[in-house]
Specification:
The chain is of the alpha/beta class and 277 residues long. The chain has helices at 4-10, 48-55, 90-97, 119-130, 151-162, 180-198, 222-238, 252-255, 268-275; strands at residues 38-41, 59-61, 77-78, 102-104, 135-137, 169-175, 202-209, 242-247, 261-262, 265-266. The longest helix is centred in the last third of the chain and has 19 residues, at 180-198. It is globular, with a radius of gyration of 17 Å. Keywords: Hydrolase, Signal.
């Protein structure tokens, strides 16, 4: 959402779009009951597999159709993503298809510097994602998932009109109130209003406390962020319409004040997240 320099560096866009689609198939069933709701976003770094296992996350993603050089720990699921328009290629779609049962759609198409797509462009490309046969998450907007007439609302209405399939809705949320109780209530309100509007299961695929009101990132203390982890994860575990959630992000190497691990050592925030779920 607001980590633009980080996410842009993570994505290597393919050169060209493929013009050939395939016939859509029905969505497979949701992943196994053993998969935990708790997950995390990650990228390659020294010790990433150890940190993933230590975090006790049930799943992770990398903003890509590939897990890169990450070795997936036993019992952990990798979920691929088709990041943006230049990722809609035969190679990336085939790679995503081989990863499992679920596919995440475009990353923040409503935000400059991320996927940056019009609703019409996303709808035109959507049959290619649907053709994988994977369970399919909507494009994850940066903001306003609950807003009538917003980017996501317009996309979902367009998808329904075209007979396209969207199985669940990924959302992003970053809070500027560093009081854990207040922030947890604000997050819950956003999730509830998004669900009430669209009536589809939610995945919270990015969240943390970061204040951007001054134009420069301001982070809470480790104690404040850890308190928010404890309260928010308890809330997320209890919401039946939230299927999964993922903290931003696994490592402090690019996660600044939100990363769960410094090297391979859990931060105070990481220790709180490890105990959650």
């Amino acid at each position: 959402m607001r980590r633009r320099n980080v996410l842009t560096a993570l994505v290597t866009a393919p050169i060209a779009l493929s013009a050939v689609g395939r016939t859509a198939t029905a969505a497979p069933a949701t992943g196994t009951a053993a998969t935990k709701k708790k997950g995390v976003s990650a990228w390659d770094f020294n010790g990433v597999t150890q940190c993933l296992a230590d975090s006790r996350s049930g799943w992770f993603y990398t903003w890509s159709s590939s897990r890169g050089a990450i070795t997936v720990p036993t019992g952990v699921e990798f979920v691929p993503m088709i990041w943006g328009p230049n990722s809609v290629t035969d190679a990336e779609l085939n790679q995503a298809r081989q990863q499992g049962t679920t596919l995440l759609g475009f990353n923040e198409p409503d935000h400059p510097g991320q996927a940056t797509m019009s609703v019409t462009q996303a709808l035109d490309l959507w049959p290619r994602l649907q053709s994988t046969g994977l369970r399919l998450g909507a494009p994850a907007v940066a903001t306003g998932a609950n807003v009538a007439g917003g980017w996501l609302d317009s996309f979902l209405q367009g998808a329904a009109a075209r007979g396209l399939r969207v199985d669940f809705i990924p959302v992003h949320w970053y809070g500027a109130d560093f009081n854990a109780t207040n922030a947890t209530a604000q997050l819950r309100g956003y999730l509830q209003s998004t669900y009430d509007r669209h009536k589809k299961p939610l995945w919270l695929t990015e969240y943390a406390l970061i204040d951007w009101s001054s134009g420069t990132a301001r982070y809470p203390t480790q104690a404040q962020q850890a308190a928010f982890v404890q309260q928010s994860t308890a809330m997320l575990q209890s919401l039946p319409f939230v299927e999964r959630y993922a903290w931003f992000t696994l490592s402090t190497s690019r996660g600044d004040g939100t990363g769960l691990y410094a090297g391979t050592t859990a931060t105070q925030v990481g220790a709180a997240y490890r105990s959650a779920g």
